[in-house]
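Re: weekly structure request thread

Next one in the queue (278 aa):
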Amino acid sequence: MAKPSKTPDVLLKFVTTALHEANRGNPLFLSGLVKSDATSAVLFLLGEHTRRRHSYEPCIILNKRSMSVRQPGDLCFPGGRISLPFDLCGAKILSMLPFMPLARWVHWPHWRYYRRREIKNLALLLATGLRESFEEMRLNPLMARFLGPMPSQNLDMFSRVLYPMVVWIHQKHFQPNWEVEKIIAIPLSSLLDPKNYACCRIFFKTDPRAPIDQGSKDFPCFRHLEEGEEVLWGVTYRIVTLFLEMVFKFKAPETTSLPVIHRILDERYFSGSVSARR
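Done, posted below.
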């Protein structure tokens, strides 16, 4: 397993190269994604954040969803659905202007020459992710450095297809909107430690009058314990662990070998009225 460098320039070059090699020759985008209501772009945010004694450490940066949206309390990357024609204009700007994240991407010339059929989708999804991130947390797109795309992931519970775009950001202060309760920064070193993983046993309670006897399902999860307990699970967990495997050759431990934590999801989790209870 490779270890992440704490020197940003070395780390960024390593991540960019690893993503490029992993994606080489593999189609990344489904046909018809522009017109599909299921399509969503998310920004996989990496950045340096202060930890103990004012030292900086590379982290994955996530939003904690507020009580006002579906899946409240979950950790996720900023993102959302494509907005036409606004995001098409954003995609053109990203592709043409030399100071924008896509034009500054070291592998952009390769894509323009060898993957011409995919560059419109790539630019559109990155534009969508940057717009949504500005709306959700006031992320400055000019402070973002694009590192590469990742394979899509299905969000089966809500019939969505997520397209992660990996970005390094220099910004350290954000202004979350009503959709976001707070910003969570998880160090890469913690994510690469098998001791921080667990099995999340989900109990489903869709009828408020019924007891919690409607079955359960086990999901792998990651526990972040620096400021209280935050649990990373579901599709965001899959995206994060796929990134760790693609870049650092790290495989999360099997669920059967992990300690079990419990969580209840009721009908309010799907409507967004009240946070899911742990």
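Residues 274-278 have pLDDT under 50 and may be disordered. Helices lie at 8-23, 86-96, 108-114, 116-137, 188-191, 234-248, 267-271.
Next request, please.
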